[in-house]
Amino acid sequence: MRGWVVVAFFATGVVGARADDVVRFEGGAAIFKANCAVCHRANGAGNAGLAPPVTVYPPRFVATVDGRRQLALTVLYGMYGDIVVDDRHYNFKMPEFARMDDATLALVLNHVVFDLGQAPPDAKPIDAAEIAVERATVQDGSQVRVNRGIAISGLPQ
Ligand code: HEC
Fold it and tell me: Which residues line ligand 1 (CB under 6 A)?
């Protein structure tokens, strides 16, 4: 992988985008647009009744050990079962993306948490090795939802 490229990019009218509108993970943005935006929309705001916004929990997850695991598990194995984000229920299937390699999954997650969401500025980007660790233990999408509850309970208030 050639790594990520820092590019100053001025998005217009993107709801929920970071205040500085700088896309740090350009490669991740392209992957997100091609594979995720159909459900989560390009700005990550989601679609009521279909897919949750990825701008609410993922940027918080990146700051904790369990949360970082949860991000990797969600893209590797998908997730299903009822979840609540901002008082809205979602209960549709997030597909698994295990066919993508570790570096690609790390890149798309970094786009989600740092570009679409507002992760704490000192949070460490996810690296390929963290994806590789979770790839070693295959999980079911319903288990990923159980893990999500654990990750949320460990978030700082
Ligand atoms: C077919 C629609 C669909 C596609 C495509 C899709 N997702 Fe999802 N995603 C969902 C649904 C539905 C959920 C919630 C699942 C549930 O209710 O358990 C979800 C949940 C998530 C979550 C967890 C959010 C949270 O609050 O825990 C993340 C992160 C995520 N998706 C990232 C991605 C990424 C990255 C991609 C592309 C690589 C992607 N999704 C592609 C439908 C989709």
Answer: 35-36, 38-40, 51-52, 54, 57-58, 71, 74-75, 79-81, 83, 85, 90-95, 97, 108, 112, 145, 148
